[in-house]
Structure formats: C-alpha cells, structure tokens
Amino acid sequence: MIELRHLRYFLAVAEQGHITRAAARLGIQQPPLSQQIRALEAEVGVPLLTRHPRGVDLTEAGKAFLAEARAALEQVERAVEAARRSARGEQGRLAIGYTSSTAFHPLIPAVVRAFRQAAPAVALELEESSTGELIEALRRERLDAAFVRTPVGDTAGLVIAPLLRERMLVVLPAQHPLAQRPATALALAELAEETFILYRRPTGPGLYDAIIAACHAAGFAPHIGQEAPRLLSTLSLVSAGLGVSIIPQSISRLDTEGLAYRALADAPQLLAPLHLAYRAAAVSGPVARLLEQVRQMVREGTL
C-alpha cells in the first residue's frame, strides 16, 4: 500500500536528483530511503527512477507519477489546513437562533458583527422564532446555538448558559395620563386598573409568567386584553391605545411613534434574563468560537 511518506520521499528524491542529498533533506539515512523508493516502485509496478553513479533521473512513468504525487500531497495539506481552520472556528457553518424579545438587545448584533469580522469564511445563518421552537431546533441539530429568555420544553442534552439580566420597563400610549406626568418611575400598583397587552405565553412563557407574578406581588391580578404573537405587535397595540405592557429595557431602543417608556420603582425582581442555549456535545469549531466571543463581550461589557 502506498503511504503519504512514500510520496514525500519520492518528491524529495525527484527534486534533489540524488538519493543521498534527499536523505539528508529528509533527515533519514540513505539505505532506508533507497529501500522505500524501491518498495514504492514495486507497489506502482514500473520503474520511476533511472539510477546513475552520480544521481537519478525520472523515467517517463516517474514524471507522470511526480505530477500526481505532488497534487496528492498538496490536497492533503489543504485538507489538514481545512480541518484545523474548522477546529479553530474559522470555516464551516453556524446557525444561530434568537427570539423576538432578544433581537433588540445590543449583545446580539454586537456578537454577530464581531463573529463575522473574526471568521468571514463561516457561513452564518440567523433565525428568529419562539423559545420552544428554537429549543426543538437545537435538539434536532438544525441550529447550533440560540439566544433565549427562559428555556421551555425538553432541554436534555442542552446547555442553557446564563448571560445577563436586564430591567423591565412599562410601555404606555404616549397620550396616557401616566405618560403625561414627569418621566419618573411608576409603581407597579398604579397599573392595577389598566388593560395589559402581553407577549403570547406559548411564545415567551418566561417573561409572561414573571409579569403575572410581579403583578400578584403588587396586590392585583392584571386584566389581559390581548396576547400578541410578537413583541413588535405588542408595541403596535400599545401605540394604538389598546393597553399597556411591560417589556425588556432593550426593546425601548426602538424609536416607535406614539409610545412612552417608564421605569418601575418597586419591582426589582422583574428582570428579563438572557441565555445562550447550545448542545453540550457540540462545543467545537464555530460554536466554540461563538461561545468565547459571547463570554468575552459579556465579561468586558463591550456592548
């Protein structure tokens, strides 16, 4: 069987035109090299070299073999480098999911931008969906990582890494009486008589349940007028005057007409977590690079 070392030995002999000089270049003794070249010729079945007292020449068969041997070695080197680049997360594919409630947090675009700059050869795919759908896509290996608030469903085999928690804000129609007051924080109990518009529970159960629990702790059960399928829909309904809502602070980055945002004065427990979910057995290549990028940005606060 022809091995890669046989090709490298033959290439050295062909380029040096002399077995002794080729042996010195390879760092081996001349007799073993001669034996390996003869074994290669026996495997090929034809002479590859014409031997002279002062060196060797390639036969016509040897010239043909040299071209293919050189190409084969170059292909192997490319394969090795491709494997190393993939292991370093510099090439391959990376599919990232995110929920609509995480899409506007500055961490997400910052991570995607930094990853694209650091690994331009990686095919990057982004997908927005509900938390449950993202978790299922991870389990089915359709996604490699996902930014979620609170995981739901079967998370067996997944790592749910906490990244940060952000404050929640009240969003009101701009003409609402509470929005006409000076921009001071509101007590949650001031919303007891309001109609709430919430992000649909099956889509974002973590935020939904946290808001309901905070309202109960403030002494009232919120009247829920509508449940919107997306956070942008929630804002649109609030802007139309159909109710109020409580949203993660990062959503207030949207410059949406007809809305007013107010902090909450008495709900320190009402925080929106942000997690990065990924398969425990798939931390290599682009995924490993993404994890390191996210951890560094969270650690340094470079958002």
Summarize this structure as a short list of keywords or feature phrases.
two-stranded antiparallel ribbon; 303 residues; 7-stranded mixed β-sheet; alpha/beta; 10 helices; 42% helix; rod-shaped
Q: Residue ranges: pLDDT <50 for 5 or more in a row?
A: none
Please state the structural category: alpha/beta
3D shape: rod-shaped
Distance between the termini: 56 Å
Percentage of residues in strands: 15-25%
Fold and architecture overview:
With 303 residues, the protein is α/β, with parallel strands linked by helices. It contains ten helices and eleven strands. It has helices at 4-16, 19-26, 30-44, 60-87, 107-118, 131-139, 177-180, 205-217, 231-239, 285-300, and strands at 49-52, 55-58, 92-98, 122-128, 145-148, 158-173, 195-199, 223-228, 245-248, 259-263, 271-279. Helix 1 (4-16) packs across helix 4 and helix 5 packs across helix 10. The model has no long low-confidence stretch (mean pLDDT 87).
